[in-house]
Amino acid sequence: MVVRRVHLSLVVAAVIAMDAQGVAVAAGPHVLQSIHIRVDSVVASNTNEGVDARLSGMGQRLRSLFNYTTYRLISHQEGQTECGKLISFSLPGGRILHLQPRAVIGDMISMELVLFQGERPLMTTDLKLRNHGVLIVGGPHYQQGMLIISIRADAMGNSSDRDQSTSTAAR
C-alpha cells in the first residue's frame, strides 16, 4: 500500500512540474495555450518574374532554400486554436493541411502536421517549432513549379512570460 502512494505521488509531482514548465494539458482549462497559426502558400517556378512584393520578408530565405527565379504568394490564411485542438487549412491543388499543437514547453511549440491530397495523407510528422518561428515545407508539384508552404506559430501569452510571473509571485 505504501508503494502505491509513492508512485501516485511521483505521478502527481510530474504533472505539477510539467504545468510549471508551461506544458499545455487539455484536461485543465487554466493551462490551455492559445496558438495563432499563419499559413502562406507560395508557388515557386522558373519564369524570371522575381519575388512577389507580398513576400518581401521571406524572399531572401526562399531564394537561399530553393533554386527558382519566381516566388508568388497565392494564398494567405490565419487561424487560432488551442493545444490539443486540430485546425485545418485548405491549400491550392486540393490539398488540406491539418495542424494540431500538442504543448508549449518553454519557447517551443510541439505539434502534429498532416498534409493531405484530398483524403489521402501525403505527409505526417510530429515537430517542435520555436515560438514565433517559421517552418517551410517545399515539395508538392503545382502548376509549372513547386508549392511551398510556410507555417508560422505564435503561442499567445507564451509560457516563458507565465513562468516569469510565477517566479516573481513566489518571491
Task: Specify Rg, calculated over alpha carbons.
Answer: 20 Å
Shape: globular
- How large a portion of the residues is in β-strands, by DSSP E? over 45%
Number of H/I helices: 3
Sketch the topology as an H/E string, one letter per element. HEEHEEEEEEEH
- In which range does the helix fraction lie? 10-25%
**Spatial order of the strands forming the largest sheet:** 2-3-1-9-8
What structural class do you assign from the helix and strand content?
Answer: alpha+beta
Major β-sheet, in short?
A: 5 strands, mixed
Distance between the termini: 37 Å
Low-pLDDT segments:
1-30, 158-171
Task: Give a count of the beta strands, DSSP E runs of length 2 or more.
Answer: 9
Assembly of the depicted chains: single chain
Overall mean pLDDT stands at: 78
Description:
The protein has 171 residues and is α+β, with helices and mostly antiparallel strands. 22% of the residues lie in helices and 50% in strands. The protein has 3 helices and 9 strands. It has helices spanning 2-20, 59-65, 159-170; strands spanning 34-45, 50-51, 70-82, 87-91, 95-105, 108-117, 120-130, 133-142, 145-155. The strands form 2 sheets. It has a 5-stranded mixed sheet, with no helix packed on it. It is globular.
Quick description:
Helices cover 22% and strands 50% of the residues.
Defining traits:
171 residues, alpha+beta, 5-stranded mixed sheet, 4-stranded antiparallel sheet, 50% strand, disordered N terminus, disordered C terminus
List strands and helices in order, with pairings.
Elements: H1 2-20, E1 34-45, E2 50-51, H2 59-65, E3 70-82, E4 87-91, E5 95-105, E6 108-117, E7 120-130, E8 133-142, E9 145-155, H3 159-170
Parallel strand pairs: 2-3
Antiparallel strand pairs: 1-3, 1-9, 4-5, 5-6, 6-7, 8-9
